[in-house]
Design a protein that fits this description.
This protein is α/β, with parallel strands linked by helices. The protein has a single domain, classed as Ribonuclease Z/Hydroxyacylglutathione hydrolase-like (Metallo-beta-lactamase, Chain A). The protein contains seven helices and 18 strands. The strands form three sheets. A seven-stranded mixed sheet has the order 8-5-4-3-2-1-18. A seven-stranded mixed sheet has the order 9-10-13-14-15-16-17, with helices on one face.
Length: about 280
């Protein structure tokens, strides 16, 4: 059975003995591969994995969805403890990330660099557009925002030389599991827009996305945008979602209020999702 275990999330609602915080980490067991997708803001996900009896020493590859601290800063502690030799991320991953708050730029990026990777003999597979991990597992990156209503967050920037420019989140990487007739989409924050991402991977694989797992960054979104996203996901053929982290529970609430045909769940640390 292929599964996704939530090792770290903003909520520990159903697993009160776990450590929580703002971030996301998922442990995937698919087609005899064990993949760590994101590592949260620190190594607390390792503690949770032990409680959940998930052996991180068996991880074949680590996929980091983007270079924000809440998804990638746990990677350093993971490498120092387990020494996994393969990292998969976008070829744009190593741009310095900042947030503009009250007129000041605050660093929101990662806590490791190429020197750290070289020191630990980490092989990095940089994804330009797509990377095939196995017969049924793919990583996609450099996904453009194509839907006007899915506005990119205004506060996020990347450092370029001595200046800053708005982050287009082209470094965002997502995972796709091909189930034959349809696709499972696994996301970190979906900054480019979840509908933009769904349309991108559906077009690439020539199949519909049936299931989405992860965060879709709508916690601060207005009702009008949430309703539009729900309608578009329905139109794209999505039938089941497992949302958490940056999504916001009001997305699930709107789905239920609208009596959406999409089966919706809000996950927390400790959840085990069948893929």
């Amino acid at each position: 059975m292929n599964t996704c275990t939530i090792l770290f999330d903003n909520s520990i609602e159903n697993f009160p003995h776990a450590k929580d915080g703002h971030g996301l980490s998922m442990f995937l067991e698919i087609d005899n591969l064990k993949i760590l997708f994101d590592t949260g803001p620190n190594d607390d996900f390792i503690y949770n994995a032990t409680l959940l009896k998930r052996n991180l020493n068996t991880v074949d590859s680590v996929v980091l969805s983007h270079a924000h601290y809440d998804h990638s800063c746990g990677y350093r502690g993971f490498v120092e403890k387990y020494g996994c030799r393969e990292l998969i991320c976008s070829n744009r991953f190593f741009f310095d990330k900042y947030a503009l708050i009250d007129g000041m730029y605050f660093y929101k990026g990662i806590n490791f660099d190429d020197k750290f990777l070289n020191c630990h003999a980490i092989n990095v597979d940089f994804v330009e557009e797509s990377l095939k991990l196995s017969k049924n597992i793919f990583i996609h990156s450099n996904i453009e925002n194509t839907e006007p209503y899915e506005q990119l967050p205004d506060k996020y920037f990347i450092r370029k030389g001595f200046g800053y420019e708005k982050d287009q989140f082209l470094d965002e990487s997502v995972m796709v599991v091909d189930k034959g007739e349809s696709l499972v989409l696994i996301v970190g924050c979906s900054h480019p827009g979840i509908v933009s991402i769904v349309k991108h991977v559906a077009k690439y694989h020539k199949k519909k996305v049936d299931t989405i797992i992860g965060g879709i960054h709508l916690s601060a979104a207005k009702k009008e945008r949430i309703d539009r996203v729900i309608s578009e996901l329905e139109n794209e053929g999505v039938t089941k979602v497992y949302f958490g982290h940056c999504t916001g529970k009001k997305v699930i609430e709107r789905m239920k209020k609208r009596e959406s045909k999409i089966e919706s769940h809000y996950f927390s640390t400790g959840a085990v999702i069948e893929i």
